[in-house]
Amino acid sequence: MEGLQFGLDTFGDRTVDEHGEPTPYAQVLRDVVAQGVLADELGIDYFAVGEHHRPDFAISAPTTVLAGLATATTSIRLGSAVVVLSSDDPIRVFEQFATIDALSGGRAEPVLGRGSFIESFGLYGFDLADYEKLFEEKLEVFAALREEAPVTWSGSYRTPMEGVDVFPKTEGGRMRSWVAVGGSPQSVVRAAHHRFGLQLAIIGGPAQRFKPFADLYRRAVDEFGITGEMPVAVHSPGHVAETDDLAAEQLYPHFKAQRDRIGAERGWGAMARDEFANEVAHGALYVGSPETVARKIADTVRDLEVDQFDLKYASGPMPHSQLMSSIELYATRVVPLVKDMLA
């Protein structure tokens, strides 16, 4: 597809070294910057970092990491995967991304979401019972701020705003911004209504089951009479190695460790090898050789008619060296293959 963009996402998973020992958090953060720099040097279009507040992830302040990447890279677009807007302040988030936009020469792309983890609510003093309403109101405020003009607004969870203006202003006049959605039709329509790009977080099952959401978004854009760029992206986990067997062998123990740790908190059973293999063969894991991963990405792009595919290249405590190799193979072999397959 003409104009198709390719991205990489990470939550800054706490890695292990080559001896299996946990990497210090500070080193993980420096490694994430090195991964973003490599992606930039290899011509990847987009690099995003997530927000978590738990021991298995190093990134709790994504905008700070992105500010570092803004001055260490030259052309790659910089996003969040995601900023948990429900437990943050939309004015502060806008100011931070406007600053990143300035430091990067116009490459900031905030991605806003409710978050699938809830640690930030208690940490920052928010009531989890307000999970949905907080996001709705804060998204309204952020959408208004994107116009970069004084905002007048009132709601239930903050004092009213009367002609509030925020700084700095962006040079481009409007940041490209996204809303991440896990599969709620209401969230899809809301993203369109507020003129945000749509990022579909597909982390389990076949990607094709999300086609109704991509179609719903495009219908909503038309019905709202919205013109201009309204892109749709897919975010899914994966790993690239020289062969299918090597990719699975490298990823499986780390993916299982993370999945079982989160699953124990949420009442899921432990992951078995056949479940992992099924997700690789038929689900949302883009794991294998460059040829295998490219075919799966091409099928997803074709079936959902998306404008961007983002590979979540870190899933569990996989060593930094293997992540760097995966990034290189994705950029130098997977991306050209996908382009050829879709040409």
Topology:
Blueprint: E1 5-10, H1 25-41, E2 46-49, H2 62-72, E3 77-80, E4 83-84, H3 90-104, E5 108-109, E6 111-113, H4 119-123, H5 131-145, E7 151-153, E8 161-164, E9 178-181, H6 185-193, E10 197-201, H7 211-223, E11 232-240, H8 244-266, H9 273-282, E12 286-288, H10 290-304, E13 308-312, H11 320-342
Parallel strand pairs: 1-2, 1-13, 2-3, 3-5, 4-6, 6-9, 9-10, 10-11, 11-12, 11-13
Antiparallel strand pairs: 7-8
Q: Oligomerization state of this entry?
A: single chain
Overall body shape = globular
Q: Can you name the CATH architecture?
A: Alpha-Beta Barrel
Q: Count the helices. How many?
A: 11
Q: What do we call the CATH topology?
A: TIM Barrel
Proportion of strand residues: 15-25%
Number of strands: 13
Question: Which bin fits the share of residues in helices?
Answer: 40-55%
Major sheet description:
11 strands, parallel
Properties at a glance:
TIM Barrel, 343 residues, alpha/beta, single chain, 16% strand
Could you characterize the architecture of this molecule?
The chain is of the alpha/beta class. It has one domain (5-342): Luciferase-like domain (TIM Barrel, Alpha-Beta Barrel). The chain contains eleven helices and 13 strands. The strands form two sheets. Strands 1, 2, 3, 4, 5, 6, 9, 10, 11, 12 and 13 form an eleven-stranded parallel β-sheet that branches. The protein has a two-stranded antiparallel sheet with strand order 7-8. Helix 1 (25-41) packs parallel to helix 11, helix 2 (62-72) packs parallel to helix 3 (90-104) and helix 10 (290-304) crosses helix 11. The mean pLDDT is 96.
